[in-house]
Prior knowledge:
Pathway: Amino-acid biosynthesis; L-tryptophan biosynthesis; L-tryptophan from chorismate: step 3/5. By secondary structure, the protein is an alpha/beta fold. It has a single domain, classed as TIM Barrel (Alpha-Beta Barrel). It contains 7 helices and 10 strands. The protein has an 8-stranded parallel barrel. A two-stranded antiparallel sheet has the order 9-10. α1 links the parallel β1 and β2 (31-35). The chain is globular.
Amino acid sequence: MPSQFRRTRVKICGLTREVDIDAAVAAGADALGFVLWPGSKRALDERRLAELSARVPAFVTRVGLFVDQDAALIERVSVHLDLLQFHGEESPDFCAGFARPWIKALRMRDGLDLHAAARAYEGAGALLLDAYRPGVPGGTGETFDWSRIPASLAKPVILAGGLTPANVAQAIHAVRPFAVDVSGGVERSPGIKDATRIDEFLRQVSLTQST
Length: 211
């Protein structure tokens, strides 16, 4: 991974409650993720997204997660978001069509050429790398072999997949990602975060920054 990043950013994803937004912000999260894909246990509708998004303070990035969804929906809800995250088979042109910065999530299936993906999605602000499970677009709670990530990838990497307070420091030392993304690893149940786990996750990330 590029060595110029002075610190690893943190995204807390799958937020569904005001109290969890407050906990994530208080702990120092850089970005908050809202799932708009209805197949997720953490999914929000448009009304709830608007309510939660309005609670996020300045300088914390609001990220919307989509999976092969209708462009009209994405256009409507993007007013509540700062960054779009695409988890499906969206084309580069589709991802770039909403006047918002965007990132592309890739599931680390066998044979995936990350260098080719970085070239194909050159307009992405980063590539989010997640574990692969057939038929599941993300949120598996599983890790993957971090050594598969090339050191010279042309795009910043957001590392996801099975991260927890217990393994995030190891993951950062192994990958040196631009950011890490956690959802289930700081939850009591799907969509219900645990403030203590959020605090510990951020603490473990901060401990890696001087090593």
